[in-house]
């Protein structure tokens, strides 16, 4: 746990240089623009603790899997979005000595992320071992207004004596991933050019993504633009150096503009042209103009997605930080991109896609962006359907059964833990649920006809083959799975997995019926292409009617899995603090035998299918499972917050909210240095909008059931819904609703039906 980020509503501020926590701060000060992003690394050389990381969305490498004992069906590789060209680098010498913060006395240090404008600032004063004292101010942006470009401005002033200063500004393509399985280098040098702008071309091994980076440096000495510096190149590295003699108080400034384009987005033979024109566009503007463009672009995002909290600056800062990170990770422009659990902020989880996207992130993008953004998230999976069928085939399923990967970038499974690859099949359910969620939210039923149904049929075929008939139970069962609670493996009849499987089958059959009424021709063409016959649907119905869903009738709870009650049910509060988190203190074997739940499992099902259960059932299950849950996945507390809010357990809901909201800023789990928990950030938004404000879609209508934490004066947010945009503000004794669109909307607000005219006020 750390507690040094200064509380401020719009800024993330660190006001002291803490070399020992630099990797934590690098994660916190990550910036990006959906297309690319970077950890908050320093521009100048740093010999202290650092994890260098600059990433380009979708540019990955299939790193050969490492396992002790190979088993059939293991994925061959773990895909990772690669650490890419280091474009911010500056070697700075003062009287010949390298400026390295680890070797200097540092004062006046401040790192500040302006979330409103999307600009990262840093200032410090460094006393060099030689006694020279310099002051640095730096700004950096990943442009939201032009997503293949970025820039920085770096100003250095000499404070106590005249000095010979040199700045070497470089592009370094010789970068590695810290988590590389075999210490491989993933990039191949292709070309370097220094004739005009500096150009570096590199290509990934195997996947052959070609990346061109074009850099223009503009140097100013004492405020005057200089002719270009001395350029040089070597393999995978280009640089330009400017030297100047500065008198006390004088400064040198560098503006560094880059365009980074890849063959993922442009034809190979157009890369140079695109990079040149992108670079020319940004370099023709002053830095002030660029900051303004960035501020305007972020203003448009904030207009849609900001949550305002009055009366609690820590909570305000946290929710904005979460929203900021989500928006800089995914902008929804390209259906081939997705949301890695750590976004562009670290290497863990490889920057690739998990069920997190569908289960947690989708509702955020649905409510805060145009439907196209959420639709692109669905299309990502639609495009991977063939691969999902192949994946299922590798595990022995056939006839069009689709098993989506637990971890993927290109549709292939690439996780190298067998329990997760083979058993954590509930991810298939979340992908189907996302289709349902998208359609009920947007009413885009056409999506079902054109894309959704085909995915649902593939998934249903998988479930129908994955269950088996138990003679003993005279019911269908599902054996050998891992549920969302990864602290149990190879269990039988995980309630959540069985439940979502049955739900998928039913939803698919309902969708077919619905399409019969609406798009008959289209439907029959699809069913005939997929050879889906009545008998197959009848089998699905039989499974729906006869699926075993374990429960304990005495306690009135669903059982996480067969045999759960055989465990010693000792509540988490009785565990000594020193053994937490369990995954860092107990053997895996001990964790598996224990009753402790890593993350919402039965409760995840109650959250998804809340409408099927009465409040008492939800309460009994919450009261039973919550005390056994250790929340060692960041995805857990938000689900508990939403359910606690629904049950009127307001203090608990608030406690869980805080746990997710400041998870990274305060480093609750001591792991922020690995990167930020981007996907759980969506859970923080959910905790407010679905938890505190109780937003639901039921029967085509938006419902709200609100409460407000005691220490807040108010909270307010916008949601988009089927062409309307609402502003909702909840205060201690009042509420305000505005309709910011031009059509009226009828909603249920705290059990009252309200017709909200455009710009209506309570
Ligand atoms: C969680 C998974 C999640 C993954 C990536 C794991 O710790 O248990 O549910 O998909 O992290 O966020």
From TrEMBL:
GO terms for biological process: carbohydrate metabolic process. Residues 320-685 form the Glycoside hydrolase family 65 central catalytic domain. Residues 14-263 form the Glycoside hydrolase family 65 N-terminal domain. One of its GO terms (molecular function) is hydrolase activity, hydrolyzing O-glycosyl compounds. Keywords: Hydrolase. Substrate binds at residues 355-356, 598-599. The active site is at 486 (proton donor). Coiled coil: none annotated. Residues 695-753 form the Glycoside hydrolase family 65 C-terminal domain. Belongs to the glycosyl hydrolase 65 family. This is Family 65 glycosyl hydrolase. It comes from Sphingobacterium gobiense. The lineage of its organism: Bacteria, Pseudomonadati, Bacteroidota, Sphingobacteriia, Sphingobacteriales.
């Amino acid at each position: 746990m750390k507690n040094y980020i200064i509380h401020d509503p719009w800024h993330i501020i660190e006001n002291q240089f803490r070399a020992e926590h630099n990797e934590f701060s690098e994660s916190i000060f990550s910036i990006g623009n959906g297309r690319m992003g970077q950890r908050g690394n320093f521009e100048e050389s740093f010999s202290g603790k650092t994890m260098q990381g600059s990433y380009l969305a979708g540019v990955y490498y299939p790193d050969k899997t490492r396992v002790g004992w190979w088993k059939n069906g293991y994925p061959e590789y773990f895909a990772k979005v690669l650490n890419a060209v280091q474009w911010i680098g500056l070697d700075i010498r003062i009287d010949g000595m390298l400026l390295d913060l680890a070797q200097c006395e540092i004062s006046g240090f401040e790192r500040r992320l302006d979330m409103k404008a999307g600009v990262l600032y840093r200032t410090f004063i460094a006393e060099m071992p030689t006694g020279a004292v310099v002051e640095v101010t730096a700004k950096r942006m990943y442009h939201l207004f032009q997503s293949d470009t970025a820039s920085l401005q770096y100003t250095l002033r000499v404070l106590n004596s005249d000095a010979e200063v040199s700045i070497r500004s470089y592009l370094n393509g010789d970068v590695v991933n810290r988590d590389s399985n075999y210490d491989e280098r993933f990039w191949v040098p292709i070309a370097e050019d220094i004739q005009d702008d500096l150009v570096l071309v590199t290509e990934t091994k195997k996947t052959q993504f070609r990346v061109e980076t074009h850099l223009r440096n503009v140097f100013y000495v004492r405020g005057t633009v200089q002719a270009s510096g001395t350029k040089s190149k070597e393999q995978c590295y280009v640089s330009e150096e400017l030297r100047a003699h500065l008198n006390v108080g004088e400064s040198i400034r560098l503006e560094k503009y880059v365009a980074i384009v890849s063959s993922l987005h442009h034809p190979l033979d157009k890369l140079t042209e695109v990079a040149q024109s992108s670079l020319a566009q940004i370099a023709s503007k002053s830095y002030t103009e660029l900051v303004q463009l960035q501020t305007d672009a972020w203003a448009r995002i904030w207009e849609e997605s900001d949550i305002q909290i009055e009366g609690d600056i820590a909570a305000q800062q946290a929710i904005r930080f979460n929203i900021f990170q989500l928006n800089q990770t995914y902008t929804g422009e390209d259906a081939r991109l997705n949301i890695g659990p750590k976004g562009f902020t670290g290497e863990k989880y490889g920057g690739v896609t998990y069920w997190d996207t569908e289960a947690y992130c989708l509702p955020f993008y649905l409510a805060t962006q145009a439907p196209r953004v959420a639709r692109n998230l669905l299309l990502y999976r639609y495009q991977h359907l063939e691969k999902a069928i192949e994946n299922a085939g590798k595990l022995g399923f056939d006839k069009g059964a689709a098993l989506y990967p637990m971890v993927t970038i290109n549709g292939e499974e690439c996780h190298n833990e067998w329990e997760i690859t083979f058993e954590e099949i509930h991810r298939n359910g979340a992908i189907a649920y996302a289709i349902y969620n998208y359609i009920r939210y947007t009413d885009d039923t056409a999506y079902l006809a054109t894309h959704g149904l085909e995915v649902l049929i593939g998934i249903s075929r998988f479930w129908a083959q994955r269950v088996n008939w138990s003679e003993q139970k005279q019911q269908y069962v599902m054996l050998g799975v891992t549920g969302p609670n990864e602290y149990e493996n190879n269990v039988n009849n995980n309630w959540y997995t069985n439940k979502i499987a049955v739900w998928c089958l039913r939803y698919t059959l309902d969708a077919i019926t619905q399409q019969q009424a609406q798009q008959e021709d289209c439907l029959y063409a699809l069913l005939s292409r997929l050879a889906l016959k009545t008998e197959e649907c009848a089998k699905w119905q039989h499974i729906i009617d006869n699926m075993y869903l374990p429960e304990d009738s005495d306690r009135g709870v669903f059982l996480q899995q067969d045999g759960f009650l055989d465990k010693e049910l000792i509540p988490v509060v009785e565990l000594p603090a020193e053994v937490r988190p369990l995954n860092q203190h107990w053997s895996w074997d001990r964790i598996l035998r224990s009753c402790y739940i890593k993350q919402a499992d039965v409760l995840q099902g109650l959250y998804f299918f809340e409408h099927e259960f009465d409040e008492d059932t939800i309460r009994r299950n919450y009261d039973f499972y919550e005390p056994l849950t250790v929340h060692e996945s960041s995805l857990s507390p938000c689900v508990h917050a939403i359910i606690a809010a629904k049950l009127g357990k307001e203090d608990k809901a608030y406690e869980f909210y805080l746990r997710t909201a400041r998870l990274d800023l305060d480093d609750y789990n001591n792991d922020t240095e690995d990167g930020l928990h981007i996907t759980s950030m969506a859970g923080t938004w959910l905790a407010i909008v679905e938890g505190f404000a109780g937003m639901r879609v039921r029967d085509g209508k938006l419902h709200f059931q609100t409460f407000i934490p005691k220490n807040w004066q108010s909270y307010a947010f916008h949601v988009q819904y089927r062409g309307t945009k609402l502003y909702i503000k909840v205060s201690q004794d009042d509420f305000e609703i505005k309709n910011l669109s031009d059509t009226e909307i009828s909603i249920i607000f705290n059990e009252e039906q309200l017709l909200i005219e455009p710009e209506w006020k309570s």
